[in-house]
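Standup notes
- HV: blocked on the assembly model, inputs below
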Amino acid sequence: MLRDMTLGQYYPANSVIHRLDPRVKLAGTLVFIISLFAFRSAEAYVAATLALVAVIRISKVPPKFMMRGLKSIIMLLMITVVFNLFLIRGTVVVRIWKLTITKEGIETAVFMAIRLIYLIVGSSIMTLTTTPNNLTDGLEKALRPLNKIRVPVHDIAMMMSIALRFIPILMEETDKIMKAQMARGADFESGNLIQRAKNMVPLLVPLFISAFRRANDLAMAMEARGYRGGEGRTKMKPLVYAHRDRMAYLVMLAYLLVMFGANRIGFAARIFGLS
Amino acid sequence: MSIIRGRKLSYEYQRLDEEGNPESTIRAVDGVDLDVQEGDFVAILGHNGSGKSTLAKHINAILVPTEGTLYVDGKDTRDESQIWEIRQTAGMVFQNPDNQIIGTIVDEDVGFGPENMGMPSEAIWKRVEESLKAVGMWEYRAHSPNKLSGGQKQRVAIAGVVAMRPKCIVLDEPTAMLDPNGRKEVVRTVQELNRKEHVTVLLITHYMEEVIEADKVIVMDQGKVVMQGTPKEIFSHVEELKARRLDVPQATLVAYELQKKGLPLPDGILSMAELADELEKLRGQRG
């Protein structure tokens, strides 16, 4: 049941994207997101689409996995589209009773929808091709400069990776407690929302107690193995940039230049009334 | 030279009432003298609440004695500045395998200790390989610990300690949560480490079968060491062990019952094979 759940959404495959340094992928995602907001012409979006399709192809992740992430934002997407469609004033195209759909409305709605979809797909490429552990490692190293302003980067990264390690264990535990309480007559499935929330108490209390006990044990085990924070600690699998990572940064730069260029063409075309 | 030397070691827990005022104190360990020689396999026996786990936590300097002293490899555990060296000298394996594995992949977990010691990456990899091979888990290095059996997880935990190259390993009931197969796996691993790598082992347990091959057995009751000696000596006192609510190995029990019925068997029979031999000898004498 709960045990079969895979953690995160990592899709194992053997591709260049998978092998890239997590820092490169973090930077790449950031560059992509920024580019979506900075360059708004149709030409720039054509370039972005091409880049996105190319990366998906190279990553060897089936597109249907990319689409999975979209399910969670379908409501947000619909609301955005509907609001933009009806509320933007301009040249009226269709009039239904008091509601009007304008040319500008359609344009903005389509544009916003595409932007949202690209945002989600773009960032899910990163999570689909990077193991959660790799990602925390990347974050730790990328955010290391923040140490200077007293942000406990190592501690945060350690907490994240421990949380990741314990999610499946706590899931299993939840499953066990649920079954044990059901055997004692607890009911987790019927009643209205408030009733159901109340019924969760006999599940949550033992789960919390056990989680704290585990935390205590783990802290002791970590100390027993000489853990004393990030200072003086070395890495077994240190992150080192390889040739492909440097190339990836170049590709990113090229992408930005192309986007910039495409944007310029778009503006020029508009100014000279070509589009 | 004894690697672990405790003198009049005592530890008190304070029980607090709801306002946080001390209500009563519980003496978990009470005036224990402890001597463990380098390379020995020592088993500590005792029923629940006998203070054996509390004693174990002292050796890793997780707890510090309230009274008395404990020296690990010549270092005083009360000395804060030496605490990390002590923890490196005396590794510790706990009861629950899930709660002591930190890494999300087997090799990362084994590397955790050496990482804390600040070793260079290549040296860490070498140690991880050595220790995973020593416990027979090298083929599982890329697995997630969640997918392993209890015995395998515990062997990974042992590898994690071995990777720090301790002189001494303390195992606090490492088999209590395992099935019989997992138990055998873990005990065999520990025995091999003791024999091949000459690591001093302190095994805390309440399974008698794990004790019979130890060099020395210490029996604890109510915070005190009540019996000490070789397994043969200890298991010669079946009555006393029973009075302390401890089991004896099955073969010992059978021999003891036969003795009571008048069969002239020697004291301290530990294994079935030994019992069979002795019975065979008796038959030879009679026939």
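- HV (later): unblocked. The radius of gyration of chain B is 21 Å. Chain B touches chain A through 38 residues (CB under 8 Å).
- Next: hand off to the docking folks.
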